[in-house]
Amino acid sequence: MELDKSDLNEVLKKFKKDLESYKHAKIKCGIIGRSGTGKSSLINAIAGEEVAEVGEIETTMNVKEPIEHGGLLFYDLPGCSTSNFPKENYINEFNIEEFDCVILVTADRFYDDDLFLMQELIRIKKPVYAVRTKMDFAVDRGLKRGINEKETYGKIYNNLSENLKGFRIKGIYLTSSDYPNEYDLSKLLEDIYSSLSNFKKERFIADINITSENILLEKRKIADKIVSRYSALAAANGLNPIPGLDIGVDITLMVKLSKEVQNIYGLNEEQQEYNKQLLDQKSVKLIASKVLQYTARYGGKEAIMILLKKASTTLIAKTASKWIPLVGSIIAAGIGFKMTSWIGNDMIVDAEEIAQETFNSFKKTGNN
Fold first, then answer.
1. What's the chain look like in SS3?
2. Is the pTM of this model over 0.85?
3. Do residues 50 and 139 lie in contact, with contact meaning Cβ atoms separated by under 8 Å?
4. What is the average pLDDT score of the chain?
5. What's the Rg (C-alpha) of the chain?
6. Which of 184, 202, 311, 321 could be 328's S-S partner, Cβ–Cβ 3.0 to 4.6 Å?
């Protein structure tokens, strides 16, 4: 059965709708804990980018405004033991019922006010994740006393398990923001991802830091979907050509696609600056060189035009056929889809290679 123009339009509309749903998806995440527990550093480690100012003083003026990173909305909130935010009205004060997840943060143990809040969150069926930060400091202190890393981890985990006995939380996670690929940050992110649904799931995995091989694999799935959706937009332009602008529209879409892929794999400038703080100089220089090559190939209209020129025969066929009623439009749509898919797949392969190398460099740094 042949696909006519109306059928094809419906298929393309579905891809376009999915892309819009993905772009507008927002994940509200509450990060709750006392001052000095490392909440800002944890937010940055999750985002893979310095989006929260470390050491920022919490005030009643700014705690209700989220820290945005793509589709992630982080609400950096104080503990409920302060006079400004009494525990009895804490959940209503910050509209926590609207949150997708809540991360309770401590640098040692959870206190009575934390446990009260935890119980209230469980009562309203909010996914609660208990995070103990600054594990690298705890390990260093242990080593000075002759206690190895495994023993320190086990002791802290067991103490927290006893501390939280009887609370139906999603899990206990020991983390270090200076070593995001060590300890339990990746498990925390994977568990939050599993609790989300539909496009929130996609957006979350696209916007978080790469802290495990599993997350890298999931990012590939999302990147493939994004390429397919942008390819559908290119195909839609083929069905509804704009005289004199059609090629320009395709290039604009591809530039947008390139930025999407760069963000998914952590190749933008902000994410690279964040990585510089955590990697050794040799790795920083090597990865920066590869990112520069990636940007030169895919980073702007001129670069995309070079790629399009390599397929000049296809482009000529597209231009020649698009003014033929119906049949020509469908052919043009198919060519637009294939062209964008081809270039988009190359973007993914090259970006994934750099992201994998970055991840491997983190592992080497952590083992040194």
1. CCCCHHHHHHHHHHHHHHHHHHHHCCEEEEEEECCCCCHHHHHHHHHCCCCCCCCCCCCCCCCCCCEEECCEEEEEECCCCCCCCCHHHHHHHCCHHHCCEEEEEECCCCCHHHHHHHHHHHHCCCCEEEEECCHHHHHHHHHHCCCCHHHHHHHHHHHHHHHCCCCCCCEEEECCCCCCCCCCHHHHHHHHHHHCCHHHHHHHHHHCCCCCHHHHHHHHHHHHHHHHHHHHHHHHHHHCCCCCCHHHHHHHHHHHHHHHHHHHCCCCHHHHHHHHCCCCHHHHHHHHHHHHHHHHHHCCHHHHHHHHHCCHHHHHHHHHHCCCCCHHHHHHHHHHHHHHHHHHHHHHHHHHHHHHHHHHHHHHHHHC
2. yes
3. no
4. 85
5. 24
6. 321
Amino acid identity, position 5: K
Question: 308-359, pLDDT tens digit by residue?
Answer: 777 555 555 555 444 444 445 555 566 777 888 888 999 999 999 999 999 9
Residues paired with residue 73 on neighbouring β-strands, in sequence order: 28, 68
Q: What phi and psi, each to the nearest 5 degrees, are found at residue 47?
A: -80, -25
